[in-house]
Design brief:
It is built from nine helices and seven strands. By secondary structure, the protein is α/β, with parallel strands linked by helices. Helix 2 (22-54) runs parallel beside helix 5 (128-143) and helix 6 (160-171) packs parallel to helix 7.
Length: 287
C-alpha cells in the first residue's frame, strides 16, 4: 500500500493510541461525510438551476471527480487524474468547440460540480464501505438536478461499482454496460480486497445492477476471469477476435460506458494503474 493509501489509516491509529473515544471519531467522520455530500449537493443544485434558467437543454454533461487510487493493486496515479483531465479539456492549445459545433463553455453542454474530497474523508479513517456509499450518493445528487447527467472522472476502476450502483438505483433497475478495458476486472476479491479495482464488476453483477455487461478489448484474462464471466453471463470480446466481432460491436446502441485507459496505448496516458502490452488504436475509439 502506498503512502497515499496509508495516510488515513495512520491518522486513525494515532487517534486510537491517544485514547480518543471511538464514538467521538465516528461522529467526526459522519460530520465530514455530511459536509462532503453537502458540497456536491449545493454545487449540483447551482449548476442545475443555471442550466434550467438558460433553457433549451435536454441533458447537460456534468463532470464529477472521484480522485481515488488506493484500491489499485499496482500504481495509484489515478488518484491525481481528475484535475489533470480538466487541464486537458481546457488546454490553451485548442479551442472549446467540439467537432459537432457545440461550445463546451456553454453550461447547457458541460458543467462541473467538482471533486468528492476522497483523501480528506480517508484521512479521518473512513473505511471503504462508507466511502463507496459517499460516491454513490454523490452521483445520485448530480442526477437529481435535471437536466444534469454525471460524467464521472476516476480514479481507479473500483469506483465503477458505486457509480453503476447509483445509476441503477436512481433509474429504478439494472442498466446495460459497455466496458472497454484490457482486463475484465471481475475477480471475486483480488488480493483479498472486495473493493479492488480488479473486482469492481464482480460487485456490480452480484448486486444485480447490470442487466447486460459487454466487455470489449480484453487481452489480459486468466481462468478466474473467464469463469466469473460465465458465472455472471458476461459477454467478453477479446482483442484476439476483435476483427471478427467488430461489425457486431459497431452497431451497439444505448449502453452505459465504462472506459479504462488500459484499453489504449500505455505509452500515452500517464499513471494508468496496471499497464498492459498491446492496445486499441485511438481511431477505434471515435464515437
Amino acid at each position: 500500500m502506498s503512502i497515499i493509501g496509508r495516510r488515513g489509516i495512520h491518522f486513525l491509529r494515532k487517534l486510537s493510541a491517544e485514547n480518543v473515544p471511538s464514538d467521538l471519531i465516528e461522529k467526526g467522520q459522519s460530520r465530514l461525510i455530511d459536509a462532503s455530500l453537502t458540497l456536491i449537493r449545493e454545487s449540483a443544485k447551482l449548476r442545475g438551476e443555471l442550466v434550467r434558467a438558460l433553457g433549451g437543454s435536454v441533458a447537460s454533461t456534468s463532470l464529477l471527480g472521484v480522485p481515488l487510487g488506493h484500491n489499485s493493486s499496482f500504481l495509484q496515479g489515478p488518484a491525481f487524474a481528475p484535475p489533470r483531465i480538466r487541464e486537458a479539456i481546457w488546454c490553451g492549445s485548442t479551442n472549446s468547440t467540439t467537432e459537432e459545433g457545440k461550445e463546451l463553455r456553454d453550461p447547457r453542454v458541460l458543467t462541473d460540480v467538482g471533486d468528492i474530497p476522497i483523501q480528506e474523508i480517508r484521512d479521518c479513517g473512513v473505511e471503504d464501505d462508507r466511502l463507496m456509499n459517499v460516491i454513490s450518493e454523490s452521483v445520485k445528487l448530480v442526477m437529481e438536478q435535471d437536466p444534469l447527467r454525471p460524467l464521472v472522472l476516476g480514479g481507479d476502476h473500483s469506483i465503477s461499482y458505486p457509480v453503476v450502483r447509483a445509476v441503477s438505483e436512481k433509474l429504478g433497475g439494472p442498466v446495460d454496460i459497455l466496458h472497454l478495458d484490457a482486463h475484465p476486472d471481475i475477480y471475486d476479491a483480488f488480493e483479498g480486497n472486495v473493493y479492488s479495482h480488479a473486482s469492481s464488476f464482480a460487485r456490480i453483477m452480484e448486486g444485480g445492477y447490470a442487466r447486460r455487461l459487454l466487455q470489449v478489448g480484453i487481452r489480459s484474462i486468466n481462468i478466474e476471469g473467464r469463469e466469473q464471466g460465465k458465472r455472471f453471463g458476461v459477454e467478453q470480446y477479446e482483442m484476439r477476435t476483435f476483427s471478427r466481432d467488430r461489425h457486431f460491436l459497431e452497431n451497439l446502441v444505448s449502453l452505459s460506458l465504462s472506459l479504462s485507459l488500459l484499453l489504449l496505448s500505455v505509452s500515452l496516458p500517464p499513471s494508468v494503474p496496471a499497464p498492459c502490452v498491446s492496445f486499441f488504436l485511438y481511431v477505434c475509439m471515435y464515437f
